[in-house]
Structures are given as C-alpha cells and as structure tokens.
TrEMBL record:
Keywords: Signal
Sections of the chain in a coiled coil: none
Protein name: GxGYxYP putative glycoside hydrolase C-terminal domain-containing protein
InterPro entries named among the record's database cross-references: GxGYxYP_C, GxGYxYP_C_sf
GxGYxYP putative glycoside hydrolase C-terminal domain span: 372-592
Record's signal peptide: 1-24
Length: 710
C-alpha cells in the first residue's frame, strides 16, 4: 500500500482549503488518523462517532469528509480533479468538540451503550440512524468521549440508554437479549429499514487480543452507510454447534437462533418484494473462527444462511475493508448525467476471422482461449480502496481483461464506475463479480430454502440483475459461487440465462454439465473458473493448454494489477502461442458457435443504448421519443418492430425501418399519445421483435424502466 508522506498530505489540505473560488459547497474535513495511536477503546469509539456523524451529516447532501486512510486521500484528490462536489470549500475541524458544535442542528443527543454488553454498540448505531443520535460508550473516565461530550463540553443529552438494560434473563445471553430487543423495537416497528443491514464487529473488538495488530479492522467508520439509510446493525455468529468466542457462556445456538429471528423479521418488512443488502462480513479475524470452523467455511455458512432470506452480501471482508465516507460519496450518483454505462461493442465475425480465431467456414480455430477474470469486487469497500490503483496502470490495455465489479456497488460507491467506463481501452471489458448484483448462493433462491423455508425468489433475482446489468451494459456473470449450497441446478442455470445472455462462469466443481457447455435449450454458454494460484502462474496457465483442440478456460485473479495480467500473458505466449487471451464477449461468441456448430447464434444481438422516454407524464400528453439501439450481432438489422409497454400496460408497436450494421447505433423517433388515466407508477418495457419473436429469445434482455402518471 502506498503511504503518502505527511508533507504530501499537508499539501493537499493547502490546495483545497486555500482555493478562493466562489464556493457553493461547504464541507467539513476531519482527520481521524491521530486517533489510531490512542487506546483500543478510544480507537473504536472515535471511529464509531465519525461513522455515525458521516451517516447523519451526509444523509441528504455531502457535508462531512473523514480522512482515515490512504484511500480517502486518493478520492479527495480525485474529487478535486473532477470538481465534485461543485466548487467544494473544505474546512478542517480542529477538534471533535468543534465538529459536534458545528453539526448541533442535526444531532439530537446521545445513544449511550454499555461496554459490559458490547453488542449494544451496534444497537446504538441503529438508534443513531433512526433518531439522529450519536453513539457513545458509557466510560466515565477522564478524556473518554463520554466525559468530553456528555459530562463536559457540549453536555449532550442522553436520549437512548442501553446501560444495564440487558442481563441475559431472556435467552441466557445478554448479547442475544440485546439483539432480540432491537429486532422488536426497530424491525417490527419499521423504524429501521431492513433493506440496509450492517454486519460489523461490535465494541468487543477493543478487547480482542488481535485488535492492536489490526487497528483499522473495527470497521466502525463503515457504519456510516447503514446509519445514513436508517438501517440495522448486528454481529452474530452463524454457527449453531458451539458458543461464540465473544460470549462463551451462552447456551449453544443462541447467537444463531437470534440471527435467524433477525433475518425473518427483516424479510417480513418487505415480505419478499425486495432484496436486502448486508454490508459487512463475518468478522473472522476476531470472532467465530477457530480450529473447528475456518475462515472460508464461516464465509460460506454466512452466505448460505443470508441467501435463504433474500439478503445479498456487500462483502466488506478483512483486510481491505475499512471504508469511511460512503454516505458522502453516494451523492455522486445523483449528479451523473450518464444514464447508461455502455461498453465496447462486441466483435464482428470479420474481426474474429482476421484474428484467426475463426475461418471463413465459421469453424473455431484450435486454440486454448483464456479469459482473465479480474476480481473480486463484491464489496464497495474493496472497490473503493483497491481498484483504482490496480486499474491506473501503464500496461492496462495490452491484454484483454474482464474486470469484475458487482454493478450494485454503485449505490454505495458511485465514483469509480463512471471513471472506469470513461477510461477503458479497447481491451477492457466489464462483467459482474461474485454471483451478480450482490453476492449470494443462487440455489438458495429455490425451494426448499434451508434455514428459512421461504417462497422462491428467482424472479426477484432476475428482475434485480436485469436492472443493474442493463444499466452497466453487462452480459456476462463472472463468478457464480454456490459455496455450501451444493451443485448448481438446471433451475439456477436457467435463471442466469435470463439476465446474463453471453454466459456465466461457475465456481469450479459445481456442475454436471462439464467445463464448458451451452445451457440446454438456450444459446447461453457456461464456463468454469480456475484460481490463479500465485506460485507459478505461467506454468499454471500453460498446464491448461489442449493441443489440437478448442478449449475455453477462465483464470480468476483477485486484487491484481493490469500489469500482473499482462506479464503472465506475455510469458505464456512466448512459450505457447496457441494459448490466446480474449475478452469475455469474444470468448462467449466463439463458445456459442463452437458448442452449437451454428454461427447464426451470433446474429440478432443488440444493446439498448439510449432513449428519452419521460419519467413523469399526464393523460393526453404527446410523447416524442428517440430510441437508440446498437447492433452487437453479426447480421445487419432492419424491418423489425419495436414494442413498448408503457403507462397502464398499454402496448405500442412501432415499425423499425432503420438499417443498423454491426457495431453501429441506429436511432428512431416515434410519437404517441398517453391514453392512460389511472395515476400511479408503471413498469416500462421495450425491445425489438422480428414478427412475433422477441429479441429476448435470441439472448437480449429487454430494456426495463418506469414511468409515473400524475
Ligand atoms: C487503510 O485501511 C486498511 C484496512 O482496510 C489498513 O490495512 C491500512 O493499513 C490502512 N492504511 C492507512 C495508511 O491508513
Ligand atoms: C448535483 O447537481 C445539481 C445541479 O446540477 C446541484 O444543484 C447539486 O448541488 C449537485 N449535488 C451534489 C451532491 O453535488
Ligand atoms: C428481564 O429483565 C428485565 C429488566 O432487567 C425485565 O424488564 C424483564 O421483565 C425481564 N424478563 C424476563 C422474561 O424475566
Ligand atoms: C406476503 O406475501 C405472500 C406471498 O406473496 C402473501 O401470500 C401474503 O399475504 C403476504 N403477507 C403480507 C403480510 O402481506
Ligand atoms: C437438467 O438438465 C439436463 C439436460 O437437459 C437433464 O438431462 C437433467 O435430467 C436435468 N436435471 C433435472 C434435475 O431436471
Ligand atoms: C499450434 O496449433 C496448431 C494447430 O493445432 C499446431 O499445428 C501447432 O503445432 C501448434 N503450435 C505449437 C507451438 O504447439
Ligand atoms: C441455426 O440456428 C438458427 C436459429 O438461430 C436456426 O433457425 C437454424 O435452423 C439452425 N441451423 C442449424 C443447422 O441447426
Ligand atoms: C431524435 O433524434 C434526432 C436525430 O437522430 C434529432 O434530430 C431529434 O432532435 C431527436 N428528438 C428528440 C425528441 O430527442
Ligand atoms: C403474430 O401473432 C398473431 C396473434 O397470435 C397472429 O395473428 C399473427 O399472424 C402473427 N404474426 C406473424 C408475423 O407471425
């Protein structure tokens, strides 16, 4: 990790603070780094306070920026370079007391928690978001935050007090009693929004023997995103066969049973109409992991359980996961004029012939086609902390790479994807990371759902992924991971074909279909990944070479730079030029022809790249709309229909008589009158048709949006 010198850091402050522009955005800057030399109690408590302040102060507009880590400085530079927030005027707060005074209009008081029941620190975070309070630990000793802010200084009033509230008289565990109370008080009442869950270690962190070796890993700054959204925080063991190390006296299974109750109540808030996202992870460095249960088994156990309750994971896993300022950054999304993020066009047949991947008879050349999956960005924290440095690399573009970013991370960290799409080269392509728009185990979406017995949620998953894949023009799922949930099934494969038409790559060993296969009845190819091992990767890649044959292999790298991929490819190709590295979409198109023997499978592919349909309409309005469609397939498109389903579910059929050649965008303009007179929110869907056959049948996800009639 790059460490900026103190001098460089001061220079940034000077640039930002002395700028004399007409200012429209005042932002308070707080440097939290000095707190990391305090006691472990203070380290947690200061970070927790800043996490809460960031969530509250940045709820509606960006107002407070915390400097805690290199990555915060990197993004501060970047934001200045793009002038966002517009003409920002940064003012550094000299002390915490000043900071609290500055924001006294928003802070209603204190949620006081009990260090004897460390779980109450998470209850205090939930209360913070719900009631606009700051979480403070009850430690009546000199210089504690309790002393500085409650006893002395601003003497903030205590509005919620968890001290001495939980004794274990209900479950035999004060920890579990605290969470059970919280599920009733915050989830049953809907005071907290269960769409935003946080799985972050509680104040017990300060007593962990490992804390002093990992001073950023309490992740208390990460609470900001949950607090901004009035979400719910917890930290419970997923294991039911032993007591957790932070509560060894509890009856076995108490944490686990509490977790299940919490997830049931979370589900009940929206009754299966949405997915929840849990940001965070099993805190495996400190808790729940031992000789009996390792780190990866604990991750898989957690995912197995969460998936059963429609919860996807935004996996802030150790040790790249300390992430302040998400609440601040999230506002960037509202200022992105670009509605859709469009990738490089798919290759034409002629390009593949020219590269000698295909001959004139449409036979795929006997080579080993290799795809780099560059992940795993299934956590907004990892994405923000690690990816920009790995991407900003002079060798990027010298070899094709499938960069694997879960598109849903845009909600919590929208700064990076626009930059990636703007600065991509002809060799940079995007796929999703783990499992799609959120990390889960796909077969857990089908009944019977172990742990929950809830109804199936495959259609909800299809709908969610269609939205995010459309927005980011993604057509391939990079790493379908099923962990402890068993083999992937026909049902789960079919589900992926509905939103990931140019294929998906599975975790190794999870299918009976074989290394590479078309999903029966579709044109969708599926592949198998191999983890780049790190020992001798060149030999590893070479070992997959299949002489005189066609083979498709996916090499998965985690947190590697563009140079790392380029260097391996260069060495491999010196030794075996029949191993060739291709992008994910060339990979898919070649696999489709090779596996089917039918080159027309690559016809009739499109991307719906733009439209200007209104979002708000009234009865009788005349709507004039342009649709722009890019031809990604190998045939020339013309004489089609565009069918639009609009307000009141009325269908309009427009003739599409604009010729579009491969790689080109055709735009067609239509006018229609709104006949609907029932106010409300309506789903909007459009796609091309040839006669009565929708382009969906050829592997094109329809465009889906919404309109409100007033
Ligand atoms: C930034 O945070 C990570 C934990 O995510 C930590 O490992 C690293 O040491 C921190 N770096 C600095 C300079 O603060
Ligand atoms: C977004 O842009 C609008 C106008 O373009 C501006 O008024 C607003 O302050 C911006 N919001 C943020 C968070 O930058
Ligand atoms: C547990 O203790 C609390 C107070 O400490 C009390 O209000 C509650 O009634 C007790 N519950 C049971 C089941 O004993
Ligand atoms: C929850 O959804 C199920 C299935 O759609 C439905 O039968 C049930 O009535 C709903 N329950 C509530 C409380 O809305
Ligand atoms: C899954 O699909 C394969 C190929 O179509 C078929 O042979 C197999 O019987 C199916 N399995 C189940 C459980 O439906
Ligand atoms: C590459 O593949 C072709 C066709 O199978 C074969 O003739 C040639 O010997 C291979 N080259 C190497 C270096 O293995
Ligand atoms: C190839 O696929 C097309 C559909 O794209 C189908 O109409 C045609 O019959 C297929 N050809 C062969 C030889 O299977
Ligand atoms: C539609 O696109 C055409 C050019 O293709 C342009 O002249 C026209 O202004 C656009 N109409 C709307 C409503 O955007
Ligand atoms: C489309 O379907 C309709 C109704 O099923 C039928 O009347 C029409 O002839 C079909 N058109 C074509 C081109 O197949």
């Amino acid at each position: 990790m790059m460490i900026l010198s103190r001098y460089a850091i001061l220079a940034i402050f000077t640039i930002l603070i002395t700028s004399n522009k007409a200012t429209t955005t005042n932002i308070v800057l707080y440097d939290l780094r000095p707190s990391t030399t305090l006691s472990l109690d203070d380290i947690y408590e200061y970070a927790h306070l800043l996490g809460a302040l960031s969530g509250l102060m940045n709820r509606d507009i960006p107002r407070l920026f915390t400097i805690y880590n290199d990555s915060d400085l990197r993004w501060l530079f970047y934001m200045a370079s793009i002038n966002w927030p517009q003409d920002a005027n940064y003012m550094e707060a000299a002390s915490l007391v000043d900071l609290i005074k500055f924001f006294s209009d928003t802070i209603q008081g204190v949620a006081l928690y009990d260090p004897i029941v460390p779980a109450t620190s998470n209850l205090a975070s939930t209360a913070s978001g719900v009631y606009n309070l700051i979480p403070i630990c009850y430690r009546p000793v000199p210089n504690s935050l309790y002393t500085q802010l409650v006893v002395e200084g601003p003497q903030l009033p205590i509005k919620v007090n968890f001290v001495d509230m939980f004794t274990g008289n209900i479950t035999g565990s004060s920890k579990a009693d605290a969470y059970l109370w919280a599920t009733e008080h915050f989830l049953d009442s809907k005071l907290a929004d269960s769409t935003y869950l946080g799985y972050y270690i509680d104040k017990w962190w300060s007593q962990s023997a490992l804390a002093s070796q990992a001073v950023f890993e309490h992740l208390a700054v990460n609470h900001d995103w949950i607090i901004k959204n009035r979400g719910f925080l917890f930290d419970l063991s997923p294991w039911d066969d032993e007591a957790p190390n932070d509560d060894p006296q509890q009856p076995i299974g108490t944490d686990y049973n509490t977790l299940i109750t919490l997830l049931k109540k979370s589900y009940q808030q929206h009754n299966g109409t949405k997915f929840s996202t849990v940001s965070g992870f099993v805190p495996w460095l400190f808790k729940y992991v031992n000789e009996k249960h390792g780190g990866v088994p604990s991750e898989w156990r957690m995912t197995h359980i969460m998936s059963a309750f429609n919860v996807v994971i935004d996996a802030d896993a150790c040790c790249a996961d300390s992430f302040a300022n998400a609440a601040f950054f999230s506002h960037y999304a509202s200022n992105q004029s670009e509605k859709r993020f469009i990738q490089n066009v798919l290759p034409s047949r002629e390009e593949l012939i020219q590269k000698e991947f295909l001959n004139e008879q449409n036979i795929v050349s006997r080579k080993t086609y290799s795809l780099y999956y560059a992940g795993d960005y299934d956590s907004a924290a990892w994405l923000a902390n690690k990816f920009k440095n790995l991407w900003d690399d002079p060798k990027r573009g010298s070899v094709p790479v499938a960069w694997a970013v879960n598109p849903n991370l845009y909600d919590r960290f929208p700064l990076l994807q626009p930059y990636l799409y703007q600065t991509r080269t002809a060799n940079d392509f995007f796929v999703s990371g783990d499992s799609g728009s959120g990390y889960l185990n796909p077969t857990q979406l089908f009944e019977p759902r172990k742990f929950s017995n809830l109804p199936r949620a495959d259609n909800l998953w299809i709908e969610r992924n269609r939205f995010f894949y459309n927005k980011f023009n993604i057509k391939h799922t990079g790493f379908v991971i099923n962990g402890d949930s068993g083999m992937l099934t026909n049902d789960s494969d079919t589900m992926y074909t509905k939103f990931s038409p140019l294929g998906f790559t599975r975790q190794q060993g999870y299918t009976t279909l074989g290394e590479t296969a078309l999903i029966p009845g579709t044109r969708v190819p599926s592949f198998t990944e191999t983890d780049l091992s790190g020992k001798d990767e060149v030999q590893q890649v070479l070992s997959y070479y299949k002489p005189n044959d066609v083979r498709f292999v996916v090499f998965r790298g985690v947190l590697r730079s563009a140079s790392s991929y380029a260097d391996i490819a260069e060495k491999v190709q010196q030794i075996q030029p029949n191993i060739t590295f291709v992008d994910p979409y060339t990979f898919a198109l070649l696999a489709r022809i090779h596996l089917s023997g039918n080159y027309t499978y690559n016809d009739d592919l499109v991307s719906y790249v733009d439209d200007n349909l209104p979002k708000l309409i009234s009865t009788g309005d005349y709507v004039t709309v342009n649709f722009s469609i890019r031809n990604e397939g190998w045939n020339t498109l013309n004489e089609l229909d565009l069918k639009l389903t609009f307000a009141c579910d009325i269908e309009y059929v427009f003739p599409w008589n604009i010729e579009i050649k491969h790689g080109n965008i055709g735009t067609s303009c239509y006018q229609f009158q709104v006949e609907c007179n029932q106010p409300g929110e309506y789903k909007v869907v459009y796609q091309l048709f040839r006669g009565n056959t929708s382009f969906e049948e050829f592997g094109n996800v329809p465009w889906i949006s919404s309109v409100r009639l007033v």
